[in-house]
Each structure stands twice: as C-alpha cells, then as structure tokens.
Amino acid sequence: MVTPCRQGAALTGVAAALLLGLAATGCEMTAHARLWADTASPDGAFSVQPRQWAYDGEPVTFELEVDPGLANFVVFGVGGEETVVSIAKVEGRYRWTQTFHAGDRPQAFEVYAVPYLLRGKCDWVFDKKDEKWYYYPGANEKPDLPTDREQRMKITCYRAEVRIGFAARGRPPAGLELTLVRADGRRSAVRQRRAAEGDAPGFLLLGPDAKGLCEVTYVPRYDEVSRAGQTTAELLVQHADGSMERIRQDLQTP
User: Fold this and answer.
1) Prediction pTM value
2) CATH value of 2-158 in 3.40.190.10, 2.60.40.10, 3.30.360.10, 3.30.70.1400
3) Within 13 Å of residue 139, how many CA atoms lie on the same side as its CB?
C-alpha cells in the first residue's frame, strides 16, 4: 500500500504568485536554502559546516532552512534512500533524523536536501510494505517544483576503541573498573563481560598471556563519548597481590 506525502501549509499568496512568475519566465530556483546538522559541536548546536563527524550509532538531526512560504515539503536523502518531510518544525525549517554506522574504518556519507513546492499531488509516495519513499510523479500533471538546488553535507561516521595493556602481577587481576570520562566531566561506568557472553555489552579482558601481559578492549557507544573534544578511558586494576594500578587512555573525537 502506498500513500502520498502529506501536504504541509497550503500555497501562500507569495508562493502562488511565485509559481505564476516562474511559468512566465522559465526560472526554477528562487528560494535560499541552508542545510544544518547538530553533530559538530559539543552542546549539539546546529552548524552549517559542510563536513561533520558522527559516532557509530549516533542519531544526527538535519534541518533544512528555507524562505517561509517557498516550500511545501523537503526531500532528504542519503545512500540512495530518500525521505519526505512535509511538516515544518517551525515555519521554513524542516527536520529529519538519521542514524549512521561504521565499522573499524570511518565511512563517509553524503546527505542532501531539496525544498519543493507542490504543483498537484506530491510526486513522492510512501510504500508501507517496503517502508520506503518512491518517486512516482503523476502522468498528467506538472512535476513538483524545486525552489533551490540540492544542499549537501558530508558526514563521516567513525568509532573509537579502548585498548589498554598492562602486566599482571602474579596472577590474573582480582578486579577491574573501566570508566569513560567525557570532555564536560560526565562519567560512564562500563561493566565487564566474559568471552562466553558473545556480543553482550561490556569490556573484555584478554590474558594474561605467556609473558603475563593483559589487555582490556572495549568499543564505546555513541552516548559514552564526547561529540567534540576528548574522551578519557580510565582503567582501575586491582592486582592479585593487592596493589592498585590506574591507567588512562585518551580517545580523540574529531
């Protein structure tokens, strides 16, 4: 089953006059649009920086700002998938949230957004079965009108890994505590998991090996690292001989 995108505000007098003017002059792009995202700054403030970073699994909110009255909907797209947003957050500002994922190496995504005015029914329909938007213009009507060129932004998705090595003192450590400290001082305690737990959340202790060396490994979640600035991993080791050792590792956030 497919449903057309919902129309936002009806055509204003300005927009209606604009369409008449466009028909007479043959012009197409008239509005001034800017694409914002909220992942560049520590406090989540929106930025128009054309290149921004996002952590693996982090939801990023995009906002297309367009002159009021010069858009009924906005098409956001990334990786061949498109989404129609027809209800503005406030007048002239359309928001869309996307979650990005990366493996061991950073992965770049190009996000784009285009504002449109309706000229009949919406040219995009949502297929509920596929849960996707499809471009499906009507055969007997003019296509919807883009009022500015594509606005683009590159998002590079990455993830960090904690790898802290230490020498066991006699036998395997009696206790381990791992804490992640963000740039604003917030702290996240991380539980230890056993190898038999598979993909369960938590850090893993490897070793000691034949040389008595151990290593703690952990891939933080997006809500455990700083959006910008430095994150510090603090490992407290309670050795088998009763001594304590505190080790720090800095994780750089782009």
Assistant:
1) 0.84
2) 2.60.40.10
3) 0
